[in-house]
Design brief:
2 domains; globular; Rossmann fold; six-stranded parallel sheet
Length: 349
């Protein structure tokens, strides 16, 4: 069975994952929108990550998974989608795709319950004819396999929410923030796993380096990791403005104005990369080829090579202390910062 795209009016994309995963789906959303400018393109996301696509013109509707999955399935069914694409791969996502009632259901052959799909791709490696595949390429391959043009491999992109921009303007109008320079660097010292955690003390040294270069320093995090921001601020010999209460659209708007972003491997670097801010990311346990920023803006990943990389990251079986990330020297990060700033072609920030 092939898809007659001329008859396609409604497309559902399912991506039930985290911040970074969602952002790395935007190249596929862009390719779909370019190919089907008049079609309705919707995306199904977890409710907590849905704000990432606030302000995006790549989709018509961001649908949040309801507390009752049955309610979500019924809602999807009513939309009468022509095509449903599972960019996630999980079992729950498969059931949502099937429940949508779409005539064409697109997924990978390794998905569990793959018999529920009628368009299957063996692997992204087969599609691209290459051994190493980025997450964005993996998703692009899936839609490319059913006829959507993807050969140019579009990059990640995010729109800006007007409400978020205005909210930041009000917040930064507060003189109590005392940010001395309009040019600022944005840091994100948090991450989900200790095997990805560059120390707050190293971030403090980075803040000092950036301040010496003439930048104000702002650090963001979540309320679930307040100690990291406190440790960074307390250890730095320069002022660091910290925020643990920004929404995802506000972080996106803030990142778009930063001169440079520096952070651990997590979802936030992908936000910075998607708004074309020069980005430096410290990698520990993760697969750098698969998860590095997907952008044409200046970016570097900083790491030390270990034979045990990559790993799942839940524990360090080799050394116990995640030497892969703790061995990354601040001087290597400083050098990467200098290079991405030198390569930045934006005239005004």
């Amino acid at each position: 069975m092939t898809i007659d795209w001329k008859t396609v009016n409604r497309v559902l994309v399912v991506k039930l994952r985290s911040i970074g995963d969602t952002i790395l789906a935007t190249p596929s959303l862009f390719a779909l929108r370019r190919f089907l400018p008049d079609a309705q393109i919707d995306i199904l996301l977890e409710d907590w990550v849905a704000p990432v696509l606030e302000g995006s013109d790549l989709v018509d509707n961001v649908i949040k998974v309801d507390a009752s999955r049955l309610t979500t399935m019924r809602s999807l069914r009513r939309q009468k989608y022509d095509v449903a694409i599972n960019l996630h791969g999980g079992t729950t996502a498969t059931f949502f795709v099937r429940a949508s009632g779409a005539r064409h259901r697109v997924g990978y052959s390794h998905y569990q319950y793959s018999f529920l799909y009628n368009h299957l791709l063996s692997s992204a490696k087969d599609f691209w004819k290459q051994e190493k595949v980025h997450s964005a390429e993996q998703q692009l391959a899936l839609i490319g396999s059913v006829g959507v043009p993807v050969d140019d491999r579009p990059k990640s992109q995010l729109g800006l929410s007007h409400a978020a921009v205005e909210s930041l303007q009000r917040r930064f109008a507060d003189p109590a923030l005392r940010i001395p320079h309009s040019a600022f660097a944005l840091l994100h010292p948090g991450t989900a796993f200790f095997t990805k955690q560059w120390s707050p003390q190293n971030f403090a040294r980075t803040a000092e380096y950036l301040a010496k270069a003439g930048y104000s320093v702002i650090a963001v995090g979540s309320r679930g990791e307040p100690n990291i921001l406190d440790e960074l601020r307390d250890d730095a010999a320069v002022p660091v403005a910290t925020f643990d209460d920004l929404t995802l659209p506000e972080i996106t708007a803030l990142a778009s104005k930063a001169s440079v972003f520096v952070g651990n491997d997590s979802g936030i670097p992908h936000i910075a990369a998607a708004v074309r801010t020069p980005t430096v990311v410290m990698f520990g346990s993760s697969n750098r080829d698969h998860w590095r920023p997907w952008t044409d803006a200046p970016n570097e990943v900083v790491y030390e090579e270990f034979h045990c990389q990559p790993c799942a990251g839940y524990e360090c079986r080799e050394f116990g202390d995640a030497r892969c990330i703790t061995s990354v020297a601040p001087e290597k990060v400083f050098a990467a910062i200098d290079r991405v700033l030198a390569a930045d072609d934006r005239k005004v920030r």
